[in-house]
Design a protein that fits this description.
The complex is a heterodimer of chains A (479) and B (491).
Chain A (H helix, E strand, L loop, with lengths): L2 H10 L1 H19 L6 H21 L4 E3 L4 E3 L1 H28 L5 H18 L3 H19 L6 H32 L4 H9 L5 H18 L7 H8 L2 H27 L5 H20 L5 H22 L1 H29 L15 H4 L1 H15 L5 H15 L3 H27 L12 H19 L2 H9 L5
Antiparallel strand pairs in A: 1-2
Chain B lengths: L4 H16 L5 H24 L9 E9 L4 E7 L1 H20 L8 H20 L3 H10 L1 H11 L4 H29 L6 H6 L4 H18 L8 H8 L2 H26 L1 H27 L4 H22 L2 H32 L10 H4 L1 H14 L6 H16 L1 H26 L16 H19 L2 H22 L3
Antiparallel strand pairs in B: 1-2
Helix pairs in contact in B: 1-2, 1-4, 2-3, 2-4, 3-4, 3-11, 3-14, 3-19, 3-20, 4-5, 4-6, 4-11, 5-7, 6-7, 7-9, 7-10, 9-11, 9-12, 10-11, 10-13, 11-12, 11-13, 11-14, 11-20, 12-13, 12-18, 12-20, 13-14, 13-17, 13-18, 14-16, 14-17, 14-19, 14-20, 16-18, 17-18, 17-19
The chains are: A mainly alpha (479), B mainly alpha (491).
InterPro entries (chain B): NADH_Q_OxRdtase_chainM/4, NADH_UbQ_OxRdtase, ND/Mrp_TM
GO molecular function (chain B): NADH dehydrogenase (ubiquinone) activity; NADH dehydrogenase activity; ubiquinone binding
Keywords (chain B): Membrane, Oxidoreductase, Transmembrane, Transmembrane helix
């Protein structure tokens, strides 16, 4: 690699370099800092993310391939990176008070989140199965550790263990698929695969490879049949980490899925049938099992499975609108899901866990504004207008119908009617039951800021979706 | 584009709701809500004054791009059909505020906010000229209505609210898919007028007809998807029941008129016999169920199912008399049944019972109340001289022209109506007093009279001189009929 190429590559990956370098520096500074002065790590971490965001924005103008075809900085990656930055910064803002209450106030927490962020950024930009793998592993290794961060709690340990074991298996499956692809096509680059594939459309070996790669990726987004870890990991992890995992790594998983499936392979195989089946089953399972949950975090875990299913419908639709619909869906989901998690996190105070749905009885009586916010996020998750959640679903349905998958669209809406039930059930508990206890939410300024941002996103995108829609459509690769 | 009158009418209640959020005193909340709704009504009267009855074209139109990439616009406008319902919605806006004045004594602010938001959304439904916009209003209505039933309703409110929510949501979501299919077949636009002008193949029309039918039938509600209605009506607070009866039930029929008939003419003509049979079934079945009720509110609720059967009957008779009768009957049902729910609410506030068997001899205790009750009961059973007579007569003559057997069945339903309504009135108002020995209740006061009087005036006005009301809708109805028959075949 010549020096110019190296400089070009470094430039293209400047945001990743910023985040990783920042994380390394903070790792050291965090150790040096005296006890009780750890707060600067939060603000320093946010600053790192903002600098990376600035670098990303400056590079957004043109497409920059880098590292000999392993990596690309294009508008598609920029869109996803923006989602990751948003999710990470909001997670940082939600964390300090919660970390204090749970006694996990050490700097590694923030550093690990930064490393996870860099992994996701690599995933969004990867154009080679190997760089995808690097990003993927960097992300999940950090989330494994973060899931087990409540060391004194048994369920946190259990969650981490389950997550690690199942995650390693899925990684193995993914790598096996990659090796098959390499064996059959002689390349791991996505473009190279596309070229190899077009001449030989119905190779059963390739189909098998596709199945393995799908399986590996499907694990990361928590879709059926690799969803088993989701409820346990989500319930056991610190709630801030659950909030983070439910949006950012999931979006990263979708970024990879979109790049892998809608670029080279879809022309070669009937992979969309597999994805369609996965989407239907995922949504059905998530929606129906969520009906019987009493634990808020577990319910949100199943809800996130159901949402992953809905987003997969956008993948099935394919085409420019399909890709854009998934991207918009993930952006909107980031706002509304971090919002509802913000509420759950805020509730954790003193001896109050904020995790049992019935504990929210009569919340509207004492905290009108917060109850109204909860209502907003829940109705948005249920997909009711005029919230953003409705537009997210609407656009996926438009993409589906555009490609003639009307039956899938009907299935999707019927399942969302089922899903609406459990969100409405929480509204019912909040508004229609008598309070059983006094509420004392841990409402710090930074939590307030998070709730304000997520609420603005949830309402704003719902009322004025045009700009965000154009952004998503403009960020679709090749379109 | 001129003065955005329709936007003002639609969003004024929403702005009012925003203002209410900052008020602390319950009385201030009540008066502000009343002020906002009266002002909205006044704007609505101004709109009607400037309304041109000679044309079927959309008036007071406003268009702004909203999501250009998908062909979505913010488009409002009204024709004669919408004008009537905008008027009805605005009228019941302040009547609902008056009806909840003392009946709602906890979380007054939240209630009035829900009420005003609800009104804004309902007005939006009738004014929207873009399908996406229409759907946003249509679906968002679920949220405040769910809250109104679920928070301020009776003992079984949570179940009733949930049932209402899930029934209508499931129906509307299928409608949404239908809308998107229509979007792609109709040239990638959500513009209602453009879609109306578009010709679709019969098979596509058929599928869409049933997708729309499910959504609209749930809202009407038609048998057999009517079961949410009695629950919702019985559990809802008075204002909630009034909104349901007066406006919400009209949405389904309005959907048939605005979408099914003009956009899917061939399918509408083809499936009209099915719809006629379903309507006759609703008329008779609803009537029989009403006959068997002892709960006042349930009786009125089931009578609604029967009365809305007349509306769908008139619509799918697909002739001028049927269609004009149906629309007039929608209006009449709103006025009369809205009033009846108001009356049930008034008596319930005083006695805390709704069982017909508990009453008797109200005429001595509350003469003004019973006198007005008589008027609305007679209107509900379509006595000549009242509004419903005109509407029902038109519907029946339209139905006989379309299909004599169905018309005959509808007449049986009308007789059933007389039976349960007269029976109810006899037991409640006449005879000796039964509610304990010292049975004394307060007669209607001035505030309540203010809510009742305009409705009573409308009952007699439409009954004795329906011409202005038919005049408003005439041009638009004729236009809908031309659209159906020129493109859909039939008569």
């Amino acid at each position: 690699m010549t020096a110019t190429a190296l400089v070009q590559s470094a430039l293209a990956s400047l945001p990743e370099i910023v985040v990783i370098a920042g994380a390394c520096i903070l790792l050291i500074l965090g150790q040096v800092a005296r006890k009780g002065q750890g707060h600067f790590v939060v603000w320093a971490s946010i600053a790192v993310v903002l600098i990376a965001a600035l670098a990303t924005a400056m590079l957004a103008g043109e497409v920059r391939p880098a590292y000999a075809g392993m990596f690309i900085a294009d508008r598609f990656a920029v869109f996803f990176k923006a989602v990751f930055y948003l999710a990470t910064v909001l997670t940082f803002l939600l964390s300090p008070r919660y970390a204090e209450i749970e006694e996990i106030g050490i700097s590694e927490y923030y550093v690990l989140l930064l490393f996870a962020l860099s992994g996701m950024m690599i995933m969004a930009s990867a154009t080679d199965l190997l760089s995808i793998y690097v990003g993927l592993e960097l992300t999940v290794l950090c989330t494994y550790v973060l899931t087990g961060f409540l060391r004194q709690q048994r369920r946190s340990n259990e969650a981490a263990l389950k997550y690690v074991i199942l995650g390693s298996v899925s990684t193995g499956i993914f790598l096996y698929g990659v090796s098959l692809v390499y064996g059959l096509t002689g390349t791991t680059q996505l473009d190279g695969m596309a070229a190899a594939v077009t001449g030989n459309p119905l190779d059963p070996g390739l189909l098998l490879a596709v199945v393995f790669i799908v399986a590996g990726l499907v694990f990361k987004v928590g879709a059926v049949p690799f969803h088993m870890w989701v409820p346990d990991a989500y319930e056991g992890a610190p709630t801030t980490i659950t909030a983070f995992m439910s949006v950012a790594p999931k979006a990263a998983g979708f970024a990879v899925i979109l790049r892998v499936f809608l670029n080279p392979l879809v022309a070669a195989s009937d992979a969309w049938i597999i994805v369609a089946v996965i989407a239907v089953v995922t949504m059905a399972l998530g929606s129906f099992v969520a009906l019987v949950q009493d634990n808020f975090k577990r319910l949100l875990a199943y809800s996130s499975i159901a949402h992953a299913g809905f987003a997969l419908f956008g993948v099935v639709a394919g085409g420019a609108d399909g890709i854009a619909s998934v991207m918009l869906y993930l952006l909107i989901y980031t706002f509304m899901n971090l919002g509802i998690f913000g509420i759950v996190i805020m509730m954790r105070n003193g001896d109050f866990s904020g995790e049992v749905i019935n504990d929210y009885a009569g919340f509207a009586r004492s905290h009108r504004g917060l109850a109204l916010l909860t209502l907003l996020y829940l109705f948005s998750l249920a997909g009711l207008p005029p919230t953003a959640g409705f537009f997210a679903k609407f656009y996926v349905l438009v993409a589906l119908v555009e490609r003639g998958f009307v039956v899938l669209a009907v299935i999707a809406v019927l399942l969302s009617a089922v899903a609406a039930y459990f969100y409405i059930r929480i509204v019912m508990v909040i508004y229609m039951r008598e309070p059983e206890r006094a509420f004392d939410p841990a409402l710090t300024p930074s939590v307030r800021a998070t709730l304000a941002v997520t609420a603005a996103g949830t309402i704003g995108i719902g009322l004025f979706p045009a700009w965000f829609l154009r952004l998503a459509q403009g960020s679709v690769f090749g379109g | 584009m001129g003065f955005p009158l329709l936007s003002l009418i639609v969003f004024l209640p929403a702005v009012g709701a925003g203002v209410l959020m900052f008020l602390r005193n319950d009385d201030a909340v009540r008066w502000t809500a009343l002020g906002v709704t009266v002002l909205d009504f006044a704007l609505c009267i101004a709109m009607l004054a400037g309304f041109d009855t000679t044309t079927h074209a959309m008036q007071f139109t406003e268009t702004r791009p909203w999501v250009p990439a998908l062909g979505i616009t913010y488009a409002l406008g009204i024709d004669g059909i919408s004008a009537l319902f905008v008027f009805l919605t605005a009228l019941f806006g302040w009547i609902c505020v008056l009806a909840s004045w003392v009946a709602i004594d906890r979380k007054v602010k939240e209630f009035m906010v829900s009420l005003l938001v609800m009104q804004a959304l309902m007005l939006g439904v009738f004014c929207a000229l873009d399908l996406f916009l229409f759907y946003v209003f249509w679906e968002a209505m679920l949220i405040p209505m769910y809250m109104i039933i679920g928070v301020w309703g009776g003992d079984g409110r949570v179940y009733a609210a949930l049932k209402f929510f899930l029934y209508t949501l499931a129906g509307s979501l299928l409608f949404l898919v239908g809308v998107i299919v229509l979007y792609f077949h109709g040239g990638r636009t959500f513009d209602i007028l453009a879609l109306t002008a578009h010709d679709l193949p019969f098979q596509v029309q058929s599928w869409l007809f049933f997708a729309f039918l499910i959504a609209f039938a749930v809202k009407v509600p038609m048998v057999p998807v009517h079961t949410w209605l009695p629950d919702a009506h019985v559990q809802a607070p008075t204002a909630g029941s009034i909104i349901l009866a007066a406006v919400l039930l009209k949405m389904g029929a309005y959907g048939f008129l605005r979408f099914s008939l003009p956009m899917l003419p061939a399918a509408s003509v083809y499936y009209a016999p099915l719809m006629l049979v379903l309507s006759a079934l609703a008329i008779i079945y609803g009537g029989l169920l009403a006959l068997a009720q002892d709960d006042l509110k349930k009786l009125v609720a089931y009578s609604s199912i029967s009365h809305m059967g007349f509306v769908t009957l008139g619509i799918f008779a697909l002739n001028l008399r049927g269609l004009e009768g149906a629309i007039l009957q929608m209006f009449n049902h709103g006025v009369t049944t809205g009033a009846l729910f108001l009356f049930v609410g008034l008596i319930y506030e005083r006695t805390h019972t709704r069982s017909i068997a508990d009453y008797g001899g109200l005429m001595q205790a509350a003469p003004v109340y019973t006198a007005f009750l008589a008027l609305f009961t007679l209107s509900s059973m379509a006595l000549p001289g009242t509004n419903s007579f005109v509407g029902e007569l038109l519907v029946l003559s339209g139905a006989f022209a379309a299909n004599p057997a169905v018309g005959a069945a509808a007449v049986v339903g009308a007789l059933l109506g007389a039976a349960y309504l007269l029976g109810m009135y006899g037991k409640v108002a006449l005879g000796p007093a039964r509610l304990g020995a010292g049975f004394k209740i307060r007669d209607v006061n001035a505030r309540e009279l203010a809510a009742i009087l305009p409705l009573a005036v409308l009952v007699l006005w439409v009954g004795l001189y329906p011409k202005p009301f038919l005049g408003i809708i005439d041009a638009s109805v004729k236009h809908v009929l031309t659209q159906v028959h020129s493109k859909g075949g039939g008569q």
